[in-house]
Design goal:
single chain; 379 residues; alpha/beta; Rossmann fold; 6-stranded antiparallel beta sheet; 10 helices; globular
Length: 379
């Protein structure tokens, strides 16, 4: 699978731009602020319906425009497929098309699979749990696209339940409706946690191997799931649903008092370790970069070798390296390049072409003044 063409209208800094990509490596070269990252952000958006840079869609729409459109041509399973997502301003729902037919935006998720490594990924090691939860959920959806609907429904039910908790706190009245929201939240939460646990078990050996490759002699890197309720039952969604429901009922008085939901996948975390110590708070800057890189490379390997019921027959996802080579020392650059020389499609952004290892040289696109042209940068 590869993205062969991209057309952006009123997306970020681009009023209208088209770009074609070949197989192998393509490097977008240009000075900071010229729009390199906007291009790969658009590809990533088609994959997940979210940005790797901002939490909401509003910044993706060019100033003064009412909507942004991302169109792509994807070569997949021996045929060419057109995808389109229109991102509308606040108050209007986003729209999508598959080929010439209207579709729900969630139907687009999973058609293009991507793995992106960017400077923001340092937050996966050093930042708050929210970044790690997003990482887990995006990878789970990459492995099982239908899970995107459950996650969207979970967020909606969670908001409704929090509203009900606040009402119960002030009224202390009939809690029958709260029982109903508890059951629905636990049902969806059980599915999500089950998917996360399966994903973590499958990802862990790939992360350990990737860390060994990019930081040889740096020790063992491990990942484990840190739940907000008892997950000893394993990965059966029904068992996890019952465990979460029990926890919700046990903590109800605390939740009513505080007006928050204390248990569920929205409170869980991913723990990374180096040897016996947690990476967060103990890893050096270089070790933190290696941990973040191992998470992304491990994700790429897991998706590439996925043989589950929802596995993509085209195998490898598109790998995006967004302005990261300047952040890596020579050893990590070399180790990363060695792992990617045979990748089906890699899209790289760099301020200067010299930041990219020679072994990853491929097609070069120059980004400047809102245009994208063939050829090396003048830098």
């Amino acid at each position: 699978m590869r993205v062969s063409a991209l057309h952006l209208t009123d997306f970020r800094s681009y009023a209208d731009v088209q770009v074609e990509f070949g197989p192998g490596v393509t490097t977008l070269v240009g000075r900071n602020g010229e729009g390199k990252t906007n291009v790969v952000e658009a590809i990533r958006y088609l994959s997940t319906l979210s940005s790797h840079r901002v939490a909401s869609d509003a910044p993706l729409i060019r100033a003064g425009a009412s909507a942004a459109t991302v169109r792509a041509r994807v070569d997949k399973s021996g045929r060419s497929l057109a995808l389109e997502v229109t991102i509308n301003a606040a108050g209007a729902s986003n729209q999508a098309r598959l080929g010439t037919s209207p579709a729900r935006p969630r139907d687009v998720v999973g058609i293009v699979r991507t793995v992106i490594f960017s400077p923001e990924d340092l937050e996966l090691v050093k930042g708050d749990p929210g970044a790690r939860r997003r990482f887990m959920d995006e990878l789970c959806v990459g492995l099982q696209p239908t899970l995107a609907g459950d996650m969207s429904d979970y967020d909606r039910v969670l908001r409704q339940r929090v509203s009900m908790l606040k009402t119960a706190r002030s009224a202390r009245g009939d809690l029958t409706m709260l029982d109903i929201w508890d059951e629905k939240l636990a049902q969806l939460g059980g599915k999500i946690v089950a998917a996360r646990l399966r994903m973590i078990a499958a990802l862990a050996p790939w992360v350990a191997r990737a860390y060994s490759d990019v930081a040889p002699g740096g020790g063992d890197c491990g990942i484990t799931y840190s739940p907000s309720f008892d997950v000893a039952a394993g990965t059966d969604a029904g068992d996890l649903e019952r465990a979460m429901l029990t926890q919700l009922r046990d903590k109800r008085s605390q939740e009513i008092e505080r007006g928050v939901t204390l248990s569920g996948p929205h409170r869980d975390d991913l723990t990374m370790t180096l040897g016996a110590l947690p990476a967060k708070g103990y890893a050096s800057h270089g070790e933190s970069w290696s941990c973040a890189l191992a998470l992304r490379l491990g994700s790429y390997d897991l998706l590439t070798h996925d043989d589950g019921p929802d596995a993509d027959p085209d195998g490898e996802p598109v790998l995006i390296l967004d302005d990261v080579f300047a952040e890596l020392d020579v050893g990590r650059r070399t180790a990363l390049a060695a792992r990617l020389e045979q990748a089906a499609q890699v899209i790289i952004t760099a301020a200067v072409a010299e930041d990219v290892p020679v072994s990853l040289q491929g097609a070069v696109l120059r980004v400047a003044d809102g245009t994208i042209t063939q050829g090396a940068s003048d830098d």
